[in-house]
Amino acid sequence: MLSQAEENLSILGIAFTEKLSQSNVSPEEALVSLVQLNEFHSSRRYYSLLCLAISEFSSFLRLEVIYHYSEGLDQISSGFLGSIVQQLPGASGAWHKKLLKRLKSQAKGNNYFLSSEKRVELQGTDPNLEKFGIYTTPFQKQHRAKLASRTQLLTNSTWYRNRLVFGVGLRADIATLRDLKIVEKSYGAMKKLKSSKASTYKIWKELEEFSGIKEA
């Protein structure tokens, strides 16, 4: 049975022997949930697996959604998330800057040692985590064999599949909420996705119209 951390890593693209069934959880929810777990805070392995997944599949992530979910994270969780966000390949723009600014602010406080202070003193620190007050010795990259294939990810996740079809944005996620029957009306989608009422309603009605044509 997968642990909670492993379930979230599986959603984000890490392959485990035990397969995770279709999940109603979005990649952003999985990411923010993962960095809050005590088992994640104490595991170099989980952090390095997350770095591997992010390096491969970050193009499917919506930074504005991570921003909304990151509000109020504690110091340590903000530090771990911040170190991941700053490593996103090719990430830039307003949402990236806003997210990093928030996480740096929320990560201020006492230093946190994932490795012993003595080991850090002798072997040096991971530069990405150090910027957010978390100290551990440098990581070796996880082997790519631990990644799910792109085909597996798209086959097993409606979230990723719709983002491939519609583009990484609000329309794809509203389509997913409808496909998985997570919400029944546009208001539920607005609350779930923290999106504007007007945009959500417009897209919902368009998808509803398209669904009616398909079924006709």
Please, could you describe this protein's structure?
The protein is an all-alpha fold. The chain folds into two domains: 4-146; 169-215. Helix content is 60%, strand content 2%. The protein contains 14 helices and two strands. It has helices at residues 4-11, 27-34, 38-41, 44-57, 63-70, 75-85, 94-106, 117-123, 127-130, 150-156, 158-166, 170-179, 186-193, 197-215, and strands spanning 112-113, 134-135. A two-stranded parallel sheet has the order 1-2. The longest helix is centred in the C-terminal third of the chain and has 19 residues, at 197-215. It is globular.
Map the helices and strands:
Blueprint: H1 4-11, H2 27-34, H3 38-41, H4 44-57, H5 63-70, H6 75-85, H7 94-106, E1 112-113, H8 117-123, H9 127-130, E2 134-135, H10 150-156, H11 158-166, H12 170-179, H13 186-193, H14 197-215
Parallel strand pairs: 1-2
Summarize the structure.
The protein has 14 helices and two strands; from the N terminus they run αααααααβααβααααα. Strands 1-2 form a two-stranded parallel sheet.
Number of domains: 2
Order of helices and strands: HHHHHHHEHHEHHHHH
* Arithmetic mean pLDDT: 93
Distance between the termini: 43 Å
Major β-sheet annotation = 2 strands, parallel
Radius of gyration: 18 Å
Low-pLDDT residue spans: none
